[in-house]
Amino acid sequence: MGNEYRAKVFKSGNSVALRLPKALGFSEGDDVIVVPHDDGSFSLWRSEEGADVLLSLYGSVSEGFMADGHGDIEQMPRDWSAGDGDAAAA
C-alpha cells in the first residue's frame, strides 16, 4: 500500500462531506466515484479513470473462481405469455 492520509468528515447542508488531503491529487470539481464495500471500507477514483480501474481488476480474480459454476442462483420459470408487453410492470 501507499502512504496513509487522514481525512475529515464534516456537515455540509443536509449532507456530510469528506475533506481529502490535497496530496491525494483531487481537484475542486472532480467527478468522483465512491464504492462502499461490505467490510465498511470504500474505494474512490475519478470518473474519467473508470475504464482504467475496471481494466486493472482484470486478472485479480483467482484462477479457480467460479470453477464450480454460479452456485445457487436458480430462478423460477417465467410465464412470458402473460402481460401486455410492458416489462417494467412485471
Automatic annotation (TrEMBL):
Q: Which InterPro entries match?
A: SpoVT-AbrB_sf
Mind telling me what this protein is named? AbrB family transcriptional regulator
Q: From what organism does this protein derive? A: Sphingomonas ginsenosidimutans
